[in-house]
Amino acid sequence: MKVTREMVDEDLRGRYAFGRIIASFVHTRWFSLLVFRFSASVLRGRNIRGLVCRELYIPSTNGAAPIRVRLYRPTAATGPLPIMLYMHGGGYVHGVPEQFGSILKDLIDTEPCIIVAPDYRKAVEAPYPAAFNDCYDTLLWIRDNAASLGGRTDKFIVAGHSAGGGLAAAVSLKATDTGDARIAFQMPVYPMIDDRQTSASVVGNDAPVWDEKANRLAWARYLDGVETITPYAAAARCTDFTKLPPTITFVGSLEPFRDETKIYVENLRRANIAVEFEMFDGAYHGFDMMVPDAPISRRAHRFLMENFQKLTQRYFD
């Protein structure tokens, strides 16, 4: 899918050239290493004003090093509160939870909850299943420590953006497969879930921020050396959607993840799973964070927050 500037929503066009520059940088392996190191040295440990913020190290059940997690909660709220496991984006190759502080604060301000965000291992450190294992271990830790955190112990929320959305979908799938934890609902936002990359929205995509070339490089790193690709590695390979929880998601019409998100939503609905979904015409990947004040970004943000509030009140009433 070739993407021209004229195809982009007019309120996002001002960042079109900058977004293409970002995509060109992401095409290089050195950029991932640079961002990985920058995130670790500059962003790591940054707190969110207006929230109670903690940093913890929790044990890995897979023999890996302890997992650094960030814990966020409102300054004043009566418990027990819903707990959300949140996975940050970054193409599985870079990023830290602190980069997504703005969205985490908005979620907590919209509906008081506790958010636990793991700094899972990236593909530049270790390929799959390292990131998935770290995130799933965090879910199990939340389950076992929910009461001491001041949270609800009966069910949880799983969420993430981009690669974090892919991890959210995979974690929810395993939790429902095994019965290890009850997921009230999931929010895999424009999720990175299909390693096969054969859909029309991926092939030839040259949109800003994240395009076909960036996508192929990231998947190659994440699945490096993996012989059998299961739905826990790429959630689009799931064949049984019947046990998955209610879902909230949205996607841009110009991004590589458009088709895989739409197919995922269709499969959920076919399995009679409740889904709140919207596609935003003329939007590229991460538009809501790159140009947050654009009207289309505000609509996407409102869609996410309103549905998050609705489902939280419905399932944690």
Summarize the structure.
The chain has 317 residues and is an alpha/beta fold.
Q: Could you explain the architecture of this structure?
A:
With 317 residues, the chain is α/β, with parallel strands linked by helices. The chain has a single domain, classed as Alpha/Beta hydrolase fold, catalytic domain (Rossmann fold), CATH 3.40.50. The protein is built from nine helices and eight strands. Strands 1-2-4-3-5-6 form a six-stranded mixed β-sheet, sandwiched between helices. Helix 4 crosses helix 5. The longest helix has 21 residues. The N and C termini lie far apart (44 Å).
Q: Which labels suit this protein?
A:
8 strands; globular; 6-stranded mixed beta sheet; 317 residues; two-stranded parallel sheet
Can you lay out the helices and strands and say which pair or pack?
Layout: H1 16-26, H2 29-43, E1 51-58, E2 67-74, E3 83-87, H3 101-110, E4 114-118, H4 130-149, E5 156-161, H5 163-178, E6 183-189, H6 212-222, E7 247-252, H7 258-270, E8 275-280, H8 287-290, H9 295-315
Parallel strand pairs: 3-4, 3-5, 5-6, 7-8
Antiparallel strand pairs: 1-2, 2-4
Helix pairs in contact: 4-5
